[in-house]
Amino acid sequence: MIEEPVGEDTGTVDQLMKNALSAFGAYKKISPVKRAGFLESIAAEIEKIKDRLVILAKEETHLPEARLYGEIARTSGQLRLFAALLKEGSWVEAVIDTSDPQRTPPKPDIRKMLVPVGPVIVFGASNFPFAFSTAGGDTASALAAGCSVVIKGHSAHAQTSSLVYAAIRAAIDLTGMPAYTVQHVLGSGATTGKELVQHPFSSAVGFTGSFTGGRALMGYSNQREIPIPVFAEMSSINPVVLFPDSLEKNGASLASALIASITLGVGQFCTNPGILLGIKGDALTAFTNVMAREIQKTIPQKMLHSGIHSSYTKGIAEMLGQKGLSVIGQSGESAGSLEGLPVVAKVSGNDFLKNDHFAEEVFGPFSLLVECQDKAQLIAVLRHLKGQLTTTLMATEKDIREFGDVIELQQGLAGRIILNNVPTGVEVCAAMVHGGPYPATSDARFTSVGTSAVKRWVRPVSFQNFSDSMLPEALKNDNPSGIMRIVNNIHTRAALH
Amino acid sequence: MIEEPVGEDTGTVDQLMKNALSAFGAYKKISPVKRAGFLESIAAEIEKIKDRLVILAKEETHLPEARLYGEIARTSGQLRLFAALLKEGSWVEAVIDTSDPQRTPPKPDIRKMLVPVGPVIVFGASNFPFAFSTAGGDTASALAAGCSVVIKGHSAHAQTSSLVYAAIRAAIDLTGMPAYTVQHVLGSGATTGKELVQHPFSSAVGFTGSFTGGRALMGYSNQREIPIPVFAEMSSINPVVLFPDSLEKNGASLASALIASITLGVGQFCTNPGILLGIKGDALTAFTNVMAREIQKTIPQKMLHSGIHSSYTKGIAEMLGQKGLSVIGQSGESAGSLEGLPVVAKVSGNDFLKNDHFAEEVFGPFSLLVECQDKAQLIAVLRHLKGQLTTTLMATEKDIREFGDVIELQQGLAGRIILNNVPTGVEVCAAMVHGGPYPATSDARFTSVGTSAVKRWVRPVSFQNFSDSMLPEALKNDNPSGIMRIVNNIHTRAALH
Predict the structure, then answer these.
(1) What is the pLDDT of residues A59-104, one digit of tens each?
(2) Exposed / middle / buried, residue A229 (Cβ in 10 Å: 0-12, 13-18, 19+)
(3) Among positive and negative, which fits the CA dihedral A322, A328, A333, A338?
(4) ipTM value > 0.90
(5) Considering only CA atoms, which of B488, B489, B358, B252 is closest in space to residue B497?
(6) SS3 for B234?
(7) Do A421 and B96 touch (CB under 8 A)?
(8) How far, in Å, are A402, A434, A445 from residue B472 at the CA level?
(9) Phi and psi for A388 in degrees, rounded to 5?
(10) Do B84 and A489 touch (CB under 8 A)?
(11) What are the residue numbers of the active site of B?
(12) Is B417 within 8 Å of A452 when comparing Cβ atoms?
């Protein structure tokens, strides 16, 4: 049992990174099955102290208990999912092209697989004290890949972060991992964070947070002599298109579902539906009226920390001050200290297209309905939007038949396209893409949620003309783990003979 | 039959990119099998005019006929390899997680696959007028992915580039592809190239060339409002480590093979072995003596163009002027106009470590032997090197047993690790990684040669809760093309039921 948070690793960034590099050298050689055991052990150690973690996190983040217990379950589930991925083993993308000595010129034997890149810097996110923080998806996927990790804990939940780190340390000891496989520091993003990203031993960066924060990290990397990949999940307003037939048939239930999604977790989700698009008409008016009634019933709740709260208050005030905007409705109760007031507003498509501010993210329980004149304007509004994590179609079969061009446009906009579900709720699974075109993320080619998140921390290496004994296990002739490989362009789990 | 080169597309960069975007909209919807037919048609059209292409290219690049015919075969082979990849279809990485409505909360159906990113800018390379130029690997892989392509032809072989483009245009007509699926411009990299990379409709960039050129393109992208991926293959000296037992047993044949590799194609290959590392001793001295004898027999040949020739002449002069360097030998004939003089030189490990200039690439028939004091210094020299495309081990079983730490270090250095083969000769196959840590390339996670090169032009998209009829073919329940998919974490070609 863990008695006290280990807290923060001390020492300079240079010392931390030297430790991380030396741990990487040892950790990358540990077998995938043992790495899986380490991930499972972290999950178990976190679960052992979940009650203490929830007490701390509730104090630090103002998130309700049920959500925090749920998030811990998600976090340990994520760690176990990566453990299962390691045990199965095929994720390394082993590809083998055997030799042909008779060919002119002779064809060499070439085999490739993914290998870990080196020490990874993970920034804890404020809005998910567990699932996107210290032992969250970035750390779990980097450890699965075979990388050592240095975590910059988020100051808004420093105690929680330190206690989660204590669980990781316990798992390191229990499973005999190299001492510095994971390290944890607090401190400022602009100083400590920058130093970490710019240290020559850092190989990649994982971040979930604001556009400003993500852009800063991208800049730090670009200033390096050797730039490194920065995976920043930054900003998204997750457009929801309300198609006419769907509005007509399901308007009231859509309004209720969307108000619930907009205000879930005080709107502090990356996939919060921040913008709703519809075509003017009676059905949209009826939908708006239900939204007004539903938002009135919501209750303001405390936001994560004073920084987010003041950003929200400022963001709402700025948004409401834009020409053409009118409020549809807001919570019937006024907001107390640190509380975010749920608000929905609307603007015409004409006004939206004239003012880029309407497409800015207001992080919190706010959403903007854009009333488009017609289909042409709906298309113009969609074209006006930047890259997104998600986009949703609320559409019937009839809508789908009639609005193929709109739907195609939506598919170019985001990493996840959703039909008749709300965008909040990001399933942790192999098929998930939690990513999307810039500025939703810094790199649309990767996801930060689901098993494919491991692909952020690896690069492919070819081995040419190696003898079997020198090859990594995944590339050996007899395929000891029975992983799926591509051998001479054929998918197979068979051994080579 | 094509009678005249179509030459260059005219019009502003803005017009070209508008055409490219509109072509992308149509081309991405064309079935993979039809795209495969298009690639095969390009290959056939190129082969039809291969004699004319060789005459032009010989004139423009000074490369010998046999090499040019070989390169055309490589180019058409590459196009057919991508066609085969499209017909097989599994490359889209289809992943399906089916729904579980009984779970709390209900688990949605989520399916993902790779989709093309948009118009791609391809820069022709000077050193491969066919295989890395107009219809080379970048173009072939981007077209395979479903992207439209705008080619910036290399001015050093503008006529050849234009004639290859004529073959592509013929294939566009023959197979009924959208008119602007491929476009071709000449002009300067610093003006036209920059404009292309910075146009808002450009989605990604492929480049093979100098470090300076690649860095410039990376900078152009970073200046964009929305940065785009730049895949630049830039600079590599491809370290070859000559282990003691191998030197002792095979020194003479190694020296001959390496001199042949160093001078192949006047040393104008990205994988030219520009640096050789060995430990001081009689075997290394004997090896050096054979090198001196072998290089003496080589004949200076014309380099690709005057720019490369003057860079080589300047680079050699600068390198030979460095303190501590001594010449091992050079061609017995003096170099004529535009010819590159083959030279090998040596330096002690001590001097190498004192002067970063020794690790710079001299593009041409030059290589530098670093004589290390002992194993510790060999390790120090390897640690001193930047990221590479390849690194080679010339090693016996005994060397491999004794130098595990050196070999491990080499594996962290490059995209391809070669045992007892020369690094020149890049096999076009699924297992090839022609890439490597910066500054060898801008992005070590990808390859520019082999079928995986297609992965540079795509991003994953998830479809949540889509009905079967709305899903792309690769994600439909009945798996009409029978591709390999991951369904609920199991690899399978089976349909869903």
Answers:
(1) 999 999 999 999 999 999 999 999 999 999 999 999 999 999 999 8
(2) buried
(3) negative
(4) yes
(5) B488
(6) coil
(7) no
(8) 18, 19, 19
(9) -130, 155
(10) yes
(11) 233, 270
(12) no
